[in-house]
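Input record (one chain):
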Amino acid sequence: MRPLHFFTESIIRKNPVFVMLLALCPAAGMSAFLSDALMLGGLTCGVLLFAEMLMALLRKVIVPQARLTVCLMIVAFLVTVADMMMQACLPVQRERLGLFLPLITVNCMVLHGMNFAARHTVSAALWHALGTGIGFWLVMALVGTVRELLGSGSLFGYVIYPSQFTIPVIAGASGALLVLGCLMALFNHLLPEKRTPAIPKYVDP
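The corresponding structure, as predicted from the sequence alone:
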């Protein structure tokens, strides 16, 4: 299988949120405002990219019994670096992300990517991480856009229409699950079915 195939598959047919149901917690918890959703999606994508590449490079020297421990150490190191850079360069945005930034360490989507990288080449891990990260970032952007528009009547803090026409419940936790569920159902409905080869019928001689 060509490495580029992992890129396209991870964005659409194996989208981490809408298809594989991974990373639902950050997708629901940090999507009330589009700017926060894009920031967390970008950071997660970056951590996933470097983590998968490091895991693929080290896959032949890591014993299976220590694989999970090494995975967590790699991701924790990258998240710590990202956290320190955010605190130094973008302290206000770092404050808005709250616990969701350190929780990238135990994000099931990232751990799934590390499991993939432990069994594939660096090239395959690179394309898989890019596809998975971009797929997650696009979902965050879509959910964040819908929730901020309907729940707050704004985008990136700029008012689009008066607040009396908003739906406040969309900005809350229940609204996040509602929007995620509706978009997930729509995505899977529009997702083209994968054709399976026809099985020839047995005919008695």
